[in-house]
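FAQ: What does the model actually see?

It sees only this:
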Amino acid sequence: MVAEVIAVFREDTASRLEVLREAVRNCDGSLIRAEAHALKGSSSQLGAAAMASMCFQMEQVGASGNFAEAAGLLAQIQKHFAEVGEAMSNLDLGDVSYGG
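And it is asked to produce this:
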């Protein structure tokens, strides 16, 4: 089940980052805010606190309409997602079957 949660996180995040890239390109504040909010929640649930913090900052960018730092912040989020993905790939899940 852990492997499945990780797979869903990776797929969902990749899709949301694509939408976020387009929103940043188009300076679409409401879409930036919505996607960053969703990414903040999912990354927080998986313990990726630094990524969640960056997504919170992006959420604020979308809410404020001040897009000057959006592209740089997006690059940081994408880089951190790659690092989180690599760390998840290196997890030894072993036998995580539920015995209850």
